[in-house]
Write a structure and sequence with these properties.
The chain is α/β, with parallel strands linked by helices. It has 51 helices and 49 strands. α1 packs across α13. Bound molecules: iron/sulfur cluster (SF4). One of its GO terms (cellular component) is sulfite reductase complex (NADPH).
Length: 1557
């Protein structure tokens, strides 16, 4: 254990040695431990608190205290007093501008010891809180700021707040006084502020750790416990509850110095009840209870102890307590403290009373002074106990010989003529008894550089001793040293600039930001500059400024001072509301004119524009202290726009202390009536933000936009912000809406809801004035959402109801109960559980089957028999629907399962983690659960069963051994006459029963009770081009709220060859805005894909697409999909010929069911297109009623471009040009395909096999015949083995081709020669043979969206409005603006530049990359893809640049799962998702898509990816041969073996599985 110094103080060797000793400069050993005052204080605060409010510049920037606090808490160090089980105090991090002292009220009122570590920057603005906290035992440790030259006015200006103030000067004192502060707060029941200038002790020798035993003694843990048992009343932090610290004493016993007696705090009304005659005087004096008043508020007592007295704590009491504490301290550690400290000769005549830094430096200089120096032998006085001000103690402290005192106050913000300390001294020494002090002279202490200390002392003493001393003389440099950076300036998270950028985009030069952070506000601190009052003031000033400017312009119009004529004529066209163009023209004319008058006007040129004035604030405005400013602005009725950014993450909203609840500024402003209000979230709806800002600008009056931008740390990635935003908006915590009071005049509702769910408070507001009814009328689709709005805690209830309903159902059934719980991601565990339930029931058991998450865990100890089946997700985690159960049980020590029999069956894949160190993930959830339930006393019905995908029959192998053991254990293994089980329903059954793809889709769409459709219909809608998905970012949260997943639909268009007209582009854009999530994905198969279309909008979206003459039929499903074609910008004529073939093939293979039109395009009123329902029996000449076994894909490539990856599809057609330059036919490849299942070696990617040449005329027939042979011979039993690639490999290429030729009646000709050069796009401008222009845009991963940085979607739409050519979507998810005439070229180029769409200056790596959608919409995704690949590339670009490879193209692809939508197996380097954050890495693919790659590493995370890629890229740059591509290089240097064909994909992988031992 570490000890405090026990040695007595060193003998005094010179008058000021005590002060120097405390600094220990240069005299102590160096192996001591504590280095800074903040560390010393943090340690004491940690030991002495339940809760520490750590005030920090930003969440991600530690303060000098917090870095220590977080370290101790991270190590789980125990505090001496923390009452919680762990003994670890709670550290609450609060940004310094977020009203930090609000956080103190709740815990302290609940009997928790609270301390605050902060800089002085928060004190003045916290005054209202300080008055209320003064009578609570709170300790605030304050490090004075700015660091090198602190301003003590932050202390003097709060000196009357009722707090006790203690000051420390040295490192050692910081430790001792911190401890004093805590002990004093506990004993006196009053708040204590301990302040110090950390800079003063920066050079002190390091000190020992505190002695914990001493701390314990001094704190007095009995008193601590008594406080912790108490609960203090008072619920409001907005009104003074009249509480004062008071003391109960027995009149016979005086208060003792040991502080045995302690004060407690009671509300004044209690005292009032007890002593009515004194009530009013005590109540009113409550706040001053710590000033030097000798009024003892003794009141006669009426409590149970007859003789006890309750009275307010007085300054004498404080003195007695603190003296007691210091006496104890002296005894334990030998150091002595008094309320005032004097150092210097006992016979000194002159003294300095210093209230500032540098006390040690002054003392040293005096000691070192020669005897003839004017300041020699001066004394130095400082206040240790600054408040209460104990004048009598000061008189006791200073020697009688002192005649003159110079008061040095380091106060930078001076508000009164005389310094507060000077007044204290004057009152004490002039008015008080005794003392021969004749002269007291105030000085303003500025910054004293070390080399100027002597000079300063000389000046002070000369003044002091002069006949007529000057009061308020300035000493030192008043401005202080120049500080390079203010750590406490407001920091903004990177993402926060998003809203600023949008403001800038909309208003451009018209934008006037009144309080922009980081702007120069003439020396005003950023904290003040960001206040609403400050900004508002500056806006009003700006307004006046403009009025004056208007007058100046009027003058100028008549002036003769211009040199040229133009300014005057333009000025005469100007009016205060003139448009941008006129302002631009005037400015241009003034610039050419150059006269002094012009220059003068130009210096205010911003005022020519009708400005859009904005005040931008943070959520700090929503707390008490900022809110009044907001109120002020709204109440003014001025035409001012406020943008208030709220950054509390959704996930943290519940954790927030109730006292810290922010005001709902939106709601508050709506209540006001005269204000335009909008609630927006840029990461949810960009267009809504635009709309709100434009409307706010147009509104003539105050506008308030509350804007959501959640983050945990300022450096969070945009993805975190996005996910938090989505949750908040989806669940109604942050509804999107607009409220426009002007709408009423137009006969429109004031309120428009732009998201779907709202919180109760908003609903109540709307309900009051009929707005809700209006809203429901306008948007009937919202009604079901609005009835289950945010905030209803229904989940627990639901669980209970579900379980009870089950139990009821089982009543009356005999037999033993068996509860079967499952956790399942892919359905296997669920299916097994349900089957087990049926089988149990057949055996006479009372079986109950539930998902683990639906089970109320409190029932578990009452179960008789429980079996749990769980599969394994991610890195050995429970599947999603097992999480809550596992979290509830894993650390539970209270559940008693002694009377429960249980067994677990786990499902997993023993090869999923090939590395030895990861092996334990195999079936980990099941094994963990087995262990925990055993530990809780459960008895095993049977040992855990392990299902392994690698066993001969997969998990069934293990299962078949386990299930009989359960029946045995329950005594039902010998039951006879069990019924036969029906076979499971397959996709084939669904297709067959669907009546040509109708199923019950229509009924499902009409069912408003759910956002979903039935499982069989989910299979069928794929044939119609749409999949049901749910937003995986929201799954957990919605589950927790008792809501079904956020279901929505993905719609994929069918767009042969990827060609769309500009008009179609706009129509697609409309569809995405009106029905989808405001974005479009250009897919790897050259078509548009929409996400986030909710069921209620699905039909409308389909109709929108069909109106634009596109369709979605057969865009997904077991049919021929969209037919692709190279986009070929350089040869338009030839492209047209080939593209025509893609259309022909597409049309030829289209299914002919009429179900599509019937379901999607039927309009209830339009009988004409209604197909006569059942009367029509559909007929599918090509497909038949069960369509194909699996999807079927056709693509066309035009050499030398393999941009469509011709080897990757079921049929790949390579266009062959004749000698005349026209298309003659195609080489046909068959059997390509990408989809794979991890660790299932029976699945593999495959490149197409060459069948031979076929003519243009016959190509669609040849394709048809290949498809028909697959239709009849493909595997319809196992969907994982159903693609054409397996049929061909199973039959043999020759046999398959033979069957095709037989059906076709023709033979393939010998393949014609061709040559590919690459499979990537050529970005930028190109000209074709007719001189038309084509521009290939870089669309990262095909995502068309607007962001604050890059409004790409808007830009493309604007271009589409004027463009006369066509758009071509490429197979690499990029876009070409095609066929642009030279005439239109400048216009298009201008627009591209305006929207930054002309930028193709990206690294070769980025340009050659592509990623699939994956999270959040794809249900199969195991890892992020589209949202992550760009980040990964950024991390690699450094190495790329360093090694001079910026231009080099390396094909890198990523997918979220092995389904392989972005064709990863053909990339030179690929990453395929394995678990969240983990990827399999593949190397060695062919540069132009001709060769498959091979597994290099399994399940690696970013760190390992970078570790492999960085040196490899470097090596490639150094060792490659001329023209050698990256994939070929990896093979040549032996990193990876070449994959020669699909069947050998799994052979010779670099990372063999390690043997199990
Ligand atoms: S590759 Fe997998 S994760 Fe990516 S979009 Fe396709 S199915 Fe989804």
């Amino acid at each position: 254990m570490a000890f405090l110094f026990k040695s007595p103080p060193h003998p005094l060797s010179s008058p000021h040695s005590q002060r120097k000793e405390h600094h220990h400069i240069g005299t102590m050993a160096t192996n001591l431990k504590i280095r800074t005052a903040e560390e010393a204080v943090a340690r004491i605060a940690y030991l002495s608190s339940d809760v520490i409010v750590s005030v920090q510049p930003a969440q991600s920037i530690e303060s000098e205290f917090s870095s220590h606090l977080h370290r101790y808490a991270g190590r789980k160090d125990k505090s001496l007093v923390a009452a919680g089980e762990s003994g670890v105090p709670e550290i609450q991090t609060i940004r310094h501008n977020a009203d930090p002292l609000l956080s103190v009220f709740t815990p302290v009122r609940n009997g928790r010891l609270v301390s605050v570590t902060t800089t002085s920057s928060i004190l003045v603005s916290s005054v209202p809180h300080l008055y209320r906290l003064a009578n609570l035992p709170v300790v605030i440790h304050v490090s004075l700021q700015p660091a090198h030259y602190p301003d003590y006015s932050s202390i003097t200006s709060i000196r009357n707040s009722g707090f006790t103030f203690l000051q420390s000067e040295t490192l050692q004192e910081a430790q001792d006084i911190a401890l004093t502060a805590h002990a004093l707060a506990i004993k006196s029941g009053k708040g204590v502020i301990h302040f110090f200038d950390a800079g003063s002790s920066a050079q002190d020798n390091h000190i020992e750790f505190e002695d914990v035993e001493v701390v314990k003694d001094i704190l007095n843990l009995d008193v601590v416990k008594a406080f912790q048992r108490s609960r203090i009343g008072g619920t409001s932090i907005y009104a003074d509850d009249g509480r004062i610290a008071s003391i109960t004493e027995a009149p016979t016993l005086p208060i003792t110095m040991e502080g045995v007696e302690t004060a407690s705090a009671v509300p004044v009304d209690q005292i009032a009840a007890e002593a009515p005659s004194k009530a009013s005087s005590v109540g009113s004096s409550g706040r001053e209870s710590s000033t030097d008043s000798n009024t003892k508020a003794s009141v006669s007592s009426a409590t149970t102890v007859d003789s006890a007295t309750v009275r307010a704590v007085t300054s004498d009491d404080v003195y007695n307590f603190v003296s007691g504490i210091w006496a104890q301290l002296k005894q334990s550690v030998g150091r002595q403290y008094t309320p005032f400290e004097y150092s210097g000769p006992a016979n000194a005549e002159n003294a300095l009373f210093i209230f500032g830094s540098d006390v040690g430096a002054f003392a040293q200089a005096i000691d070192a002074a020669k005897s003839n120096e004017i300041f020699a032998k001066a004394g130095v006085v400082t206040a240790r106990l600054y408040r209460p001000w104990l004048g009598s103690k000061l008189i006791e402290t200073i020697p009688n010989s002192i005649k003159r005192i110079a008061v040095l106050e380091q106060i930078r913000r001076k508000t009164t003529k005389w310094g507060p300390l000077l007044l204290d001294l004057l009152t004490t020494l002039k008015a008080g008894p005794g003392g021969g002090v004749e002269t007291i002279v105030g000085h303003q202490l500025g910054y004293i550089a070390p080399e100027t200390v002597r000079q300063a002392l000389r000046g002070i003493l000369q003044n002091l001793k002069s006949e007529k001393p000057i009061q308020n003389l300035e000493v030192g440099n008043a401005d202080g040293p120049t500080e390079s950076l203010d750590a406490y300036s407001l920091s903004q998270p990177k993402v926060e600039t998003a809203y600023m950028k949008i403001l800038d985009q909309i208003f451009g030069k018209r934008l006037y930001l009144a309080n922009a952070l980081h702007s120069q506000n003439a020396g005003i601190s950023t904290t003040i500059a960001s206040n609403p009052e400050f900004g508002f003031g500056s806006l009003l000033a700006r307004k006046e400024h403009r009025q004056r400017f208007i007058a100046e312009v009027e003058q100028a119009k008549k002036s003769m001072e211009f040199i040229t004529e133009a300014p005057k004529s333009w000025l005469s066209k100007w009016s205060p509301s003139a448009g941008e163009e006129i302002a631009d023209e005037i400015i241009a004319r003034l610039q050419t004119d150059g006269s002094p008058l012009s220059r003068d006007l130009l210096s205010k040129q911003g005022l020519f524009r009708k400005e859009s004035s904005w005040l931008v604030g943070s959520d700090a405005w929503a707390y008490d202290l900022g809110n009044s400013g907001v109120h002020h602005v709204i109440a003014s009725g001025e035409n001012v726009n406020m943008l208030i950014i709220d950054s509390t993450p959704y996930s943290e909203r519940a954790a927030a202390d109730a006292e810290r609840r922010k005001k709902d500024i939106g709601l508050y402003s709506m209540n006001y009536g005269n204000t335009y209000v909008a609630s927006v979230a840029v990461y949810s709806s960009y267009t809504q933000v635009l709309q709100a800002m434009i409307e706010a600008d147009q509104f003539n009056g105050p506008s308030v936009i509350v804007a959501y931008l959640p983050y945990f740390k300022e450096n969070d990635s945009p993805l975190t912000t996005l996910q938090e935003t989505k949750k908040a908006v989806d669940l109604g915590y942050w509804p999107l809406y607009r409220w426009n009071p002007d709408n009423e005049d137009r006969g429109e509702p004031n309120f428009s809801l732009d998201s779907e769910r709202i919180k109760n408070e908003l609903k109540d507001f709307l309900a009051r004035d009929n707005h809700l009814t209006q809203l429901m009328k306008k948007h009937p689709e919202f009604s079901s959402n609005l009835s289950e709005d945010y905030g209803s805690e229904v989940r627990a209830l639901q669980k209970r109801q579900a379980k009870d309903a089950y139990s009821q159902m089982l009543e009356g059934i005999l037999g033993a109960p068996l509860t079967i719980l499952f956790a399942s991601d892919n359905g296997n565990a669920e299916t097994l559980s349900k089957r087990l339930g049926n089988r149990g029931r057949a055996r006479g058991l009372k079986t109950l089957v539930m998902a683990m998450e639906d089970y109320p865990i409190e029932d578990l100890p009452n179960e008789e028999n429980v079996v749990i089946l769980t599969s394994t997700a991610g890195q050995g985690e429970f599947p999603q629907n097992g999480h809550s159960f596992w979290n509830a049980i894993k650390d539970n020590t209270e559940l008693d399962l002694a009377s429960v029999n249980f067994s677990i069956f786990a499902l997993g894949d023993s090869h999923y983690w090939p590395r030895k160190e990861d092996k334990h993930y195999y079936n980990k959830p099941g094994k963990d659960l087995d262990r925990v339930m055993g530990n809780l006393g459960g008895k095993r019905l049977a040992d855990i069963g392990l299902g392994d995908d690698q066993d001969p029959d997969g998990f069934q192998t293990g299962y078949q051994n386990w299930e009989p053991l359960i029946w045995q254990a329950l005594g039902v293994d010998k039951v006879e006459g069990l019924p036969e089980e029906p076979p499971p329903i397959t996709n084939e059954d669904i297709k067959l029963a669907s009546n040509y793809l109708r199923g019950t889709i229509q009924e499902g769409l009409d069912d408003p009770s759910t956002g979903a459709i039935s499982a069989p219909d989910q299979q069928l809608t794929k044939f119609h081009g749409t999949y049901m998905q749910d937003d995986r970012d929201l799954r957990d949260e919605r589950k927790a709220q008792g809501l079904e997943p956020a279901y929505s639909f993905m719609i994929r268009c069918r767009l042969p060859g990827g060609v769309a007209t500009p008009k179609q582009w706009i129509q697609m854009d409309d569809v995405s805005n009106a029905f989808g999530n405001e974005t479009m994905k250009l897919t790897t198969r050259q078509t548009f894909q929409f996400h986030g279309v909710v069921k209620g909008k699905l039909k409308k979206a389909m109709q929108g697409i069909n109106k634009s003459l596109m369709t979605t039929i057969a865009a997904c499903g077991d049919v021929n999909r969209n037919v692709m074609c190279s986009s070929l910008p350089t040869a338009s004529e030839y492209h047209r010929e080939v593209y025509a073939c893609s259309q022909k093939i597409s049309d030829h293979l289209l299914p002919s069911t009429t179900a599509y039109h019937e379901i999607w395009l039927k309009d209830e009123n339009d009988k004409k297109i209604q197909v006569a329902g059942d009367a029509v029996q559909d007929f599918e000449p090509l497909y038949g009623p069960t369509y194909l076994p699996r999807k079927f894909k056709i693509t066309i490539a035009i050499p030398p471009h393999n941009d469509t990856d011709v080897y990757a599809h079921d049929v790949g057609l390579i266009a062959i040009k004749g000698k005349d330059g026209h298309l003659v036919g195609f080489n046909l490849l068959a059997g390509g395909g990408m989809g794979v299942t991890h660790n299932n070696k029976k699945t593999y990617p495959r490149t197409g096999s060459m069948f031979g040449f076929v003519s243009t005329k016959q190509v669609h027939i040849a394709c048809e015949k290949v498809m028909l042979v697959q239709r009849d011979h493909g595997d319809r039993k196992n969907r994982k083995h159903a693609r054409l690639k397996y049929t061909i490999d199973d039959m043999g290429i020759d046999v398959f081709r033979g069957k095709v030729e037989e059906l076709w009646g023709q033979k393939f000709e010998k393949a014609r020669p061709f040559k590919f050069q690459s499979n990537i796009d050529t970005f930028g401008w190109q000209k074709d043979e007719h001189g038309l222009n084509h521009f290939t845009f870089f669309i990262e991963n095909g995502r068309i969206e607007d962001t604050a940085d890059f409004p790409m979607k808007t830009g493309l739409r604007e271009i589409a409005k004027v463009m006369k050519g066509e758009f071509r979507l490429t197979g690499n998810q990029h876009l070409i603006a095609s066929n642009i005439t030279d005439e239109q070229l400048p216009q298009i180029k201008d627009m591209m530049a305006k929207y930054k769409l002309d930028n193709v200056q990206f690294s070769g790596l980025r340009l050659s990359s592509s990623a699939c959608v994956a999270f959040p919409t794809c249900g199969l995704a195991m890892a992020e893809s589209e949202r992550y690949l760009p980040e990964l590339i950024t991390k690699l670009e450094g190495v790329i640049e360093e090694n001079g490879m910026r231009q080099d193209s390396i094909v890198m692809r990523m997918t979220g799962c092995p389904n392989g939508c972005a064709r990863p197996w053909l990339a030179e380097v690929a990453f395929v998702g394995k678990a969240y954050g983990a990827y399999n890495m593949y190397l060695g693919g062919g540069y132009h898509g001709q060769r498959l790659n091979k597994l290099y590493r399994s399940s690696i995370k970013e760190e390992e990816i970078l570790e492999i890629m960085k040196p490899l890229l470097k090596r490639y740059s150094q060792e490659r041969e001329e023209g050698e591509h990256f994939g070929d290089f990896c093979i040549r240097i032996g990193m990876i073996k070449e994959t020669t064909e699909g069947k050998t994909f799994h052979d010779d992988v670099a990372e063999e599985e390690s043997d199990e031992e």
